[in-house]
Amino acid sequence: SATARHYGADIAADALRRLFSSRYGDRIEATLVGDGAHFAEFEDSFGSDARVTIRRGYVSQEELADLHRSHGLFLVPSRLDTQGVSRDEAMSSGLVPLTNSVAAIPEFIDSSCGVLAPPDDASALAAGALRIMDDPQAFSRMSEAASLRVRRQSGYSFTIDKEIAM
What we know:
With 166 residues, the protein is of the alpha/beta class. 45% of the residues lie in helices and 13% in strands. The strands form 2 sheets. A 3-stranded parallel β-sheet has the order 3-4-5, sandwiched between helices. A two-stranded parallel sheet has the order 1-2.
């Protein structure tokens, strides 16, 4: 969602600009999906960039699964505790989340399974992505850890089953 400033579209755009100007810039491909008043940030910044696919609107579960299979990192900055479901779905698929250490987000991500940047810090998000790109083994470890953590912490048996039991 890019419906409000707290979703961090400007932070994401800044982080992407930094990544595109990095040593990996010519090898990075990004897909931006969503909608809202701040989504134009992406269209204005990357509309003519061949490395970026922009899809205004939302996708079906099947399309989302395809996107997860074709990407490795999930850039999901936040100024509040936003987009947790999307982040957790991405983690479950093995994507490594890049987000900000605000509100309750650190209760769901740590450095073993993602990048937690300080609030509003696009530079730290980009730097974290670059560290992961520099070390494919670290990416593999973090990807596996992200998937295991979200299943362990937010999976069916740890949420729905417990709620039903209560």
